[in-house]
């Protein structure tokens, strides 16, 4: 069996189990449709329902749907409108079509006519803000138990999903090199952003998230996406957090560069990079991701001490919460069909949740590590004045040194890791850069 055939068999088995556990006869997964701006007739870029692209690698066919009854072939209703205003979406012959019953429709009424009374017993998964979908007489809309069941098991990726994530990382790595070159050529943030897109022939709406392209101080703004149109007089540092997609799967990569090869900031980038790589050697099934997060905090705390930004031992710096002021976000998250892939807080497929730790409120992944999971590892160290305010009187903080770092923003290094057995992990991101 090839990898897509095995993937769709796994998806089918997961839906079988989820439907049985939640007592539904069938499921209707709606791809969704574009939302139109308020008082306007312009649509926002279409983002397909992730549970739709879980089945088939079709991301650009709004108003399509998949109907699945356990024991039967999935039916894909492919929406191809008769519309002379827009170009029809071309769906090339592809392998997925051999695994489904394909029904081409040009009106949603044809879907409901095909289903007949079966629509009354089905569970609907998707957005339903528009007619006629809003009025379909389905048995339940987005039942939480069904979603939790599916989300819990999505954490383990199939081989086909990992292949797609590999390609997404190769695309993003290629674009990252173009962006790096544009930074060293002294380009503006917007020019760097354009160089990134051009390198892989992407339009902005194909990116998995708004790229973070920050020069100098902007590197400290965690989700900076302003893109200044003029280059600063001096580009000292560059933080880029940007991804790519392939068949609906997402890459999420961060790199930080120092213009100068030597000096304080160049050394800091190397230190954070080394601390990230050291952490990668600790990933193994059985540990909790939370333990990795704390281990990474201690390494960042050590760097804060080594660079004389904060005085004291790593343990003290961590215990007093200073490392959280410099590294406020989580160590990482699941990644796959969504950049922040789902299920990070789920304890089981019945929807029970892990308790969040108020010390680390932004950590999105609390599950034990298992082979087959894919997640990011993205430590950072930044000067975020808003967070340092709470420690304004702390004698441990070396403000002169912090002032020295502020004009560089900060550092983040982010890779995506496939967990293997016994620490035999795959670094999708570093492998992708190595291939170039
Ligand atoms: N790019 C968003 C994140 O790293 O989580
Ligand atoms: Mn990330
Ligand atoms: Mn990122």
From TrEMBL:
<dbReference type="GO" id="GO:0046872">
    <property type="term" value="F:metal ion binding"/>
</dbReference>
<feature type="domain" description="Xaa-Pro dipeptidase N-terminal">
    <location>
        <begin position="3"/>
        <end position="152"/>
    </location>
</feature>
<dbReference type="InterPro" id="IPR029149">
    <property type="entry name" value="Creatin/AminoP/Spt16_N"/>
</dbReference>
<dbReference type="GO" id="GO:0008235">
    <property type="term" value="F:metalloexopeptidase activity"/>
</dbReference>
<protein>
    <recommendedName>
        <fullName>Xaa-Pro dipeptidase</fullName>
        <ecNumber>3.4.13.9</ecNumber>
    </recommendedName>
</protein>
<feature type="binding site">
    <location>
        <position position="414"/>
    </location>
    <ligand>
        <name>Mn(2+) 2</name>
    </ligand>
</feature>
<keyword id="KW-0224">Dipeptidase</keyword>
<dbReference type="GO" id="GO:0005829">
    <property type="term" value="C:cytosol"/>
</dbReference>
<keyword id="KW-0378">Hydrolase</keyword>
<dbReference type="InterPro" id="IPR048819">
    <property type="entry name" value="PepQ_N"/>
</dbReference>
<keyword id="KW-0645">Protease</keyword>
<dbReference type="InterPro" id="IPR000994">
    <property type="entry name" value="Pept_M24"/>
</dbReference>
<dbReference type="InterPro" id="IPR001131">
    <property type="entry name" value="Peptidase_M24B_aminopep-P_CS"/>
</dbReference>
<feature type="binding site">
    <location>
        <position position="252"/>
    </location>
    <ligand>
        <name>Mn(2+) 2</name>
    </ligand>
</feature>
<dbReference type="InterPro" id="IPR022846">
    <property type="entry name" value="X_Pro_dipept"/>
</dbReference>
<dbReference type="GO" id="GO:0102009">
    <property type="term" value="F:proline dipeptidase activity"/>
</dbReference>
<dbReference type="GO" id="GO:0006508">
    <property type="term" value="P:proteolysis"/>
</dbReference>
<dbReference type="GO" id="GO:0004177">
    <property type="term" value="F:aminopeptidase activity"/>
</dbReference>
<feature type="binding site">
    <location>
        <position position="378"/>
    </location>
    <ligand>
        <name>Mn(2+) 1</name>
    </ligand>
</feature>
<dbReference type="GO" id="GO:0016795">
    <property type="term" value="F:phosphoric triester hydrolase activity"/>
</dbReference>
<keyword id="KW-0479">Metal-binding</keyword>
<dbReference type="InterPro" id="IPR052433">
    <property type="entry name" value="X-Pro_dipept-like"/>
</dbReference>
<comment type="similarity">
    <text>Belongs to the peptidase M24B family. Bacterial-type prolidase subfamily.</text>
</comment>
<feature type="binding site">
    <location>
        <position position="241"/>
    </location>
    <ligand>
        <name>Mn(2+) 2</name>
    </ligand>
</feature>
<feature type="binding site">
    <location>
        <position position="252"/>
    </location>
    <ligand>
        <name>Mn(2+) 1</name>
    </ligand>
</feature>
<feature type="domain" description="Peptidase M24">
    <location>
        <begin position="163"/>
        <end position="421"/>
    </location>
</feature>
<keyword id="KW-0482">Metalloprotease</keyword>
<comment type="function">
    <text>Splits dipeptides with a prolyl residue in the C-terminal position.</text>
</comment>
<dbReference type="Pfam" id="PF00557">
    <property type="entry name" value="Peptidase_M24"/>
</dbReference>
<dbReference type="Pfam" id="PF21216">
    <property type="entry name" value="PepQ_N"/>
</dbReference>
<keyword id="KW-0464">Manganese</keyword>
<feature type="binding site">
    <location>
        <position position="333"/>
    </location>
    <ligand>
        <name>Mn(2+) 1</name>
    </ligand>
</feature>
<feature type="binding site">
    <location>
        <position position="414"/>
    </location>
    <ligand>
        <name>Mn(2+) 1</name>
    </ligand>
</feature>
<dbReference type="InterPro" id="IPR036005">
    <property type="entry name" value="Creatinase/aminopeptidase-like"/>
</dbReference>
């Amino acid at each position: 069996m090839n990898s897509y055939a095995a993937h769709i068999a796994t998806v089918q088995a997961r839906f079988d189990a989820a439907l049985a556990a939640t007592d539904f006869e069938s499921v209707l997964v709606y791809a969704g449709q574009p939302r139109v701006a308020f008082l306007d007739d312009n649509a926002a870029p279409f983002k397909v329902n992730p549970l739709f692209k879980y089945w088939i690698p079709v991301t650009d066919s709004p108003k399509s749907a998949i109907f699945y009854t356990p024991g039967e072939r999935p039916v894909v209703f492919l929406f191809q409108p008769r519309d002379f205003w827009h170009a029809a979406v071309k769906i090339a012959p592809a392998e997925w079509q051999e695994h489904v019953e394909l029904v081409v429709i040009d009106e949603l009424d044809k879907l409901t006519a095909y289903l007949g009374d079966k629509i009354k017993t089905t569970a609907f998964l998707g957005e339903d803000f528009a007619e006629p979908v809003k009025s379909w007489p389905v048995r339940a809309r987005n039942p939480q138990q069904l979603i939790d069941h599916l989300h819990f098991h999505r954490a383990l990726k199939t081989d086909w999903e990992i292949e797609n994530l590999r390609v997404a990382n190769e695309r993003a790595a290629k674009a990252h090199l173009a962006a790096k070159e544009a930074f060293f050529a002294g380009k503006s943030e917007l020019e760097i952003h354009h160089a990134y897109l051009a390198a892989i022939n992407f339009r902005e709406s194909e990116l998995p998230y708004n790229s973070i392209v920050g020069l100098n101080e902007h590197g400290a703004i965690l989700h900076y996406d302003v893109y200044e149109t003029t280059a600063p007089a001096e580009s000292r540092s560059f933080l880029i957090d940007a991804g790519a997609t392939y068949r609906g799967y997402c890459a999420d990569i961060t790199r930080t560069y120092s213009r100068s090869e030597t000096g304080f900031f160049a050394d800091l980038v190397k230190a954070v990079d080394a601390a990230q790589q050291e952490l990668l050697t600790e990933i193994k099934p059985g540990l909790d991701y939370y333990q990795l997060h704390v281990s990474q905090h201690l390494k960042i705390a050590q760097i804060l001490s080594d660079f004389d930004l904060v005085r004291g031992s790593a343990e003290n710096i961590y215990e007093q919460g200073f490392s959280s002021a410099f590294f406020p976000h989580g160590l990482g998250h699941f990644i796959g069909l969504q950049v922040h892939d789902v299920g990070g807080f789920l304890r089981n497929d019945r929807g029970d949740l892990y308790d969040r730790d108020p010390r680390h409120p932004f950590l999105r992944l609390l599950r034990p590590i298992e082979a087959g999971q894919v997640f990011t590892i993205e430590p950072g160290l930044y000067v975020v004045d808003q967070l340092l305010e709470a420690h304004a009187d702390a004698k441990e903080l070396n403000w002169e040194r912090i002032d020295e770092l502020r004009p560089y923003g900060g550092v983040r290094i982010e890779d995506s890791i496939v967990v293997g057995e016994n620490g035999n992990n795959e670094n999708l991101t570093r492998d992708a850069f190595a291939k170039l």
